[in-house]
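Thanks for the sequence, V.! I ran Aspartyl/glutamyl-tRNA(Asn/Gln) amidotransferase subunit C right away. Repeating your input here for the record:
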Amino acid sequence: MSIDQSTAAKVAKLARIKVEDDALPALASEFNTILGFIEQLNEVDVEGVEPMVSVEPMRLKRRQDVVTDGNQQDKVLANAPDAREGFFAVPKVVE
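Predicted structure:
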């Protein structure tokens, strides 16, 4: 597949990128280079290869999924401008 200047201009318009007319040949060339790399990747035989997330297989560290109150009430309320009885205190807005 080859990208010409009119196709490069259409792609730039769809991407909402302003490209001057004199820059279109270079843009079309870059698109063709990228498509060439993609064609090279398509030639690679990946049959039976599992997808990987990382180069080195690692398991994520996990913790027990237990419900707690966090035991951080004092830390959370430390930044509150006004706290009473273990809660944020806010001005009354309803009469």
